[in-house]
Design brief:
Strands 3-2-1-4-5-6 form a 6-stranded parallel β-sheet. Helix 15 links the parallel strand 2 and strand 3. It is of the alpha/beta class. It folds into 2 domains: about 200 residues, no CATH class; about 180 residues, TPP-binding domain (Rossmann fold). It is globular, with a radius of gyration of 25 Å. Helices cover about 60% and strands about 5% of the residues. The protein has 18 helices and 6 strands. Helix 5 runs parallel beside helix 7, helix 12 packs across helix 18 and helix 14 packs parallel to helix 18.
């Protein structure tokens, strides 16, 4: 009894450390220590599990942990910053697959713990298989779209909502039949229906909505861990899984608001609005209205600017221009200018993607401004440099009610005195709509890949100081 109480206290300590770690992850300046505290919490959970369980072969378990740790450390250093979204999706798929497979193994092993009600055990196995499989399939699809293995465009499925509802009913009904008759045939029904549901929920989602999908899959992974906890009566899994599931749902809600998506629709797989699937690259919209500038002209504008904002977008990640951007930042701040980074919460392909890129090159955390902070500063800003961003700075989100991005919170860069947009072409963003920012009176365009363009601006700025 004393051992059980001690283990519960360790699990509770794990959850408290996770909560504290999540709190610290809210700010870039405390994110690293938050990550470390969460890792310590996980270590405590592992120790508690070792203390409370009797394993047949400790050597194999420790060997698996060592191999997994080595692979994890290697991947953490090896994975390109541009591939972090894919990496997160891959980790999610592992979590879902493990939860589903362990639940199925628990049924096949046919050893129900003495303190677990058989009905609870079989229902938990069913739900664990259901949620874990959806998480695995959904994460694999997300990874494939992000990696370019399959098209990022939404794949429209006829009668999708009806099909999803039918598969959900079949899955839940099969789970209860499985618990009632303890027949593996019904578990097969659960597995097959959840595989199809994982496909129908994620294939219709376009690349623009990957941040929302990844947030939702994180929540699913937590719920599958919770279900697995009920299977074995493991309080640690129940508490931690519930925390991850709730955190994922909260993050999904935040992302839904930031991208103007319906939260309840997201839970049903209705993320990408039908309008967004219709790309409209209207060249006549821009014809004769674009003002271009050379890197030399941009350098001159920056020289006479006192307050400068830099808006990083996915184009920055693609070109890997963060190091050159840091060099420009250092040149400008050395001249006494106030330079800050205006970061939209869904810039890039996952929440915090731009923060990670900038932190990689040691941009000061206090210069990374949130959407709200940036919009307070932008009207008093002399010059804004938009690097590879599009939809997150599109005024249509404020002005055009029939636009698919209407209502989405954006960075109000058009309110600054001068806007410098670095972009490869006039191609639309993920939303597929034109961007009036590019033809504004105070906007100039610099066409080209972000890295060489920024390098030329740095070179021109240095020459002005000679």
């Amino acid at each position: 009894m004393k051992l059980l109480k001690g283990v519960l206290i360790l699990y509770l300590l794990t959850v408290l450390l996770f909560i504290f770690g999540l709190k610290l992850l809210q700010k870039p300046s405390t994110a690293r220590i938050g990550n470390l505290i969460s890792a310590i919490g996980m270590l405590i959970a592992i120790i508690a599990t070792f203390v409370s369980q009797r394993f047949e072969n400790y050597f194999l378990i420790i060997l698996a942990m060592v191999i997994g740790s080595v692979i994890g450390i290697f991947l953490a250093y090896w994975v390109d910053m541009r591939a972090i979204p894919q990496f997160v999706a891959m980790l999610n798929s592992f979590g879902g697959a493990v939860s589903s497979l362990v639940g199925i193994w628990a049924f096949l092993d046919n050893k129900i713990p003495d303190f677990i009600n058989p009905i609870q055990f079989y229902i938990s196995v069913g739900f664990d298989t259901f949620i874990g499989t959806i998480t695995f399939i959904g994460s694999v699809i997300a990874f494939s779209k992000l990696q370019g293995i399959i098209s990022e465009k939404p794949i429209l499925i006829p009668f999708k909502n009806f099909l999803n509802l039918l598969l959900l009913v079949i899955s839940i009904f099969s789970i209860f039949l499985f618990a009632l008759f303890k027949n593996s045939l019904f578990l097969w029904f659960v597995l097959i229906s959840s595989v199809i549901l994982g496909l129908t929920l994620t294939l219709p989602i376009g690349g623009a909505d990957m941040p929302v999908l990844i947030s939702l899959l994180i929540s699913y992974a937590g719920l599958s861990a919770t279900s697995l906890g009920f299977t074995f009566g493991n309080y640690g899994l129940i508490m931690v899984g519930s925390l991850v599931g709730a955190s994922g749902l909260i993050l999904t809600r935040i992302m839904a608001k930031a991208m103007n998506r319906d939260f309840w629709g997201i839970l049903l797989g209705n993320i990408t609005p039908p309008e967004i699937t219709k790309t409209s690259d209207d060249r006549s919209f821009y014809e004769g209205k674009i003002k271009t500038a050379s890197p030399d002209e941009v350098a001159s504008i920056l020289e006479f600017s006192k307050t400068i904002a830099i808006v990083p977008g996915y184009g920055l990640a693609v070109s890997q221009a963060q190091q050159v951007l840091k060099e420009l930042y250092e040149l400008l701040t050395k001249d006494g200018k106030f330079v800050y980074f205006a970061i939209h919460p869904v810039a890039g392909r996952m929440p915090g993607h731009m923060n990670v890129l900038l932190a990689e090159v040691d941009i000061p955390y206090d210069r990374m401004k949130t959407l709200e902070e940036s919009n307070e500063l932008l009207p008093q800003t002399d010059a804004v440099i938009v690097v590879g961003a599009n939809d997150v700075v599109n005024p249509l989100a404020r002005e055009k009610e029939d636009s698919p991005i209407y209502g989405m919170p954006i960075l109000d860069v058009d309110k600054a005195k001068v806007v410098i947009v670095i972009k490869r072409s006039l191609a639309p963003g993920f939303s597929g709509v034109v961007n009036p920012l590019f033809i504004n009176e105070n906007t100039i365009m610099v066409f080209g890949d972000a890295k060489p363009v920024l390098s030329e601006i740095v070179k021109a700025y240095k020459e002005l100081k000679v």
